[in-house]
Amino acid sequence: MIVSLHVASGAAVGAAAGSRRGAVALGLLAHAVGDRIPHHDIASRRFELRSGAALLLLVALRRGVLDPATVGGAATAAPDLEHVLRLPRPGGRKLFPSHRFRGWHRAGGLPASLQLLAAGVLAGLVLGRGRHA
Asked: Disulfide check for 8: which of 47, 48, 116, 122 has CB 3.0–4.6 Å away?
């Protein structure tokens, strides 16, 4: 799943969770579910990073840095940091479970354009409600 959809879906589940702890738990679960859905990634790592960071910043500015929506968005996107940062790889395998198991993260299915549209819709719902919705 593209980063902006990870952020948007995490913000949505975080807002629904209503607590930061719940937002982290549901956000990590949402990341794993998003990886399981066959999808196409965006070839530009720069676009992925910038669009995801921009969306997370918008959520933080609108709802607050510690709002469950912001925490959920960050938690859902965080596992993909291991794709761009040099993190330890015990046994040569990535850290996050959906990245470790062969066949979990599958290509095909949802085109990137549809994922961007879904991210925009979810972000609009989360941002439109503002803080304490």
From this structure: 122
Q: 130 pLDDT exceeds 70?
A: no
Is 38 a domain residue? Answer: yes
Residue 97 domain-assigned (yes or no): no
What's the pLDDT tens digit per position in 73-109? 999 998 987 877 777 777 777 766 777 777 777 788 8
Q: Which residues have a Cβ under 8 Å from the Cβ of 65 and sit 6 or more positions away? A: none
Query: Can you spell out the DSSP letters for 15-65?
Result: HHH-SHHHHHHHHHHHHHHHHHS-BPPPS-HHHHHHHHHHHHHHHHHHH-T
Contact 70, 59 (CB under 8 A): yes
The predicted-structure confidence for 14-70, as pLDDT tens digits, reads as follows 999 989 999 999 999 999 999 898 889 898 989 999 999 999 999 999 999 999 999
Domain membership of residue 62 as a residue range: 3-86+103-129
C-alpha distances in Å from residue 35, one per residue of 14, 28, 41, 99, 132 = 18, 11, 11, 8, 29
Number of domains in the chain: 1
